Amino acid sequence: MPLLQRLRFDHAPALLRFERENRAYFAASIPDRGDDYFTHFDARHHALMTDQEAGLLFFHVVVDDGGEVLGRVNLADVADGSAELGYRIAERAAGRGLATAAVREVCALAATEYRLTSLRAVTTLDNAGSRAVLARTGFVPVGDVDLDGRPGLRFLRHAGGE
């Protein structure tokens, strides 16, 4: 059964494998991370862990029984009781409700453990799956956004918004 875990240093190898294996799949619906992300992955992961310890972000992974990463749900740009939600689920795990369950769990953590009062999210207009996950988890559209030349929507969720 998939389990949501707070991102740790020892998740790095499985997380890098997840990102590499799903790069083309993700790039079809969200802007690509670029080669630099993969080249400097270890240093970036270390920096993220440092920022997480400082309370500047809260990153999570969804892992299977074997420890492989099936997805990630991140809360970034934490400030003034708010954060930006981002998530991605492996192609092999898509369409099974995993994104909805993981986002729902992180929203609960945001309100209780992290003491956040609102969450923001964005997605492209052509990403119907992501829009559906956000709607099912209490996010409401609040405006348009351009995501690397692709039209998208901004979403907002207040604590207890589901």
Task: Give the key terms.
162 residues; alpha+beta; Aminopeptidase; seven-stranded mixed sheet; 33% strand; globular
Structure overview:
The structure is a single chain. With 162 residues, the protein is α+β, with helices and mostly antiparallel strands. The chain has a domain at 3-115: Gcn5-related N-acetyltransferase (GNAT) (Aminopeptidase, 3-Layer(aba) Sandwich). Helices cover 35% and strands 33% of the residues. It has six helices and seven strands, in the order E-H-H-H-H-E-E-E-H-E-H-E-E. The protein has helices at residues 12-21, 23-27, 35-39, 41-53, 98-112, 128-136, and strands at residues 3-6, 58-63, 69-79, 82-89, 118-124, 140-147, 150-158. A seven-stranded mixed sheet has the order 1-2-3-4-5-7-6, with helices on both faces. Strand 3 (69-79) and strand 4 form a beta hairpin. The longest helix is centred in the middle third of the chain and has 15 residues, at 98-112. The protein is globular. It starts with a strand and ends with a strand. The model has no long low-confidence stretch (mean pLDDT 94).
Shape: globular
Mean pLDDT: 94
The CATH superfamily label of the domain at 3-115 reads Gcn5-related N-acetyltransferase (GNAT)
User: What is the CATH third-level topology name of the domain at 3-115?
Assistant: Aminopeptidase
Q: Return the CATH class of the domain at 3-115.
A: Alpha Beta
> Which CATH-level-2 architecture of the domain at 3-115?
3-Layer(aba) Sandwich
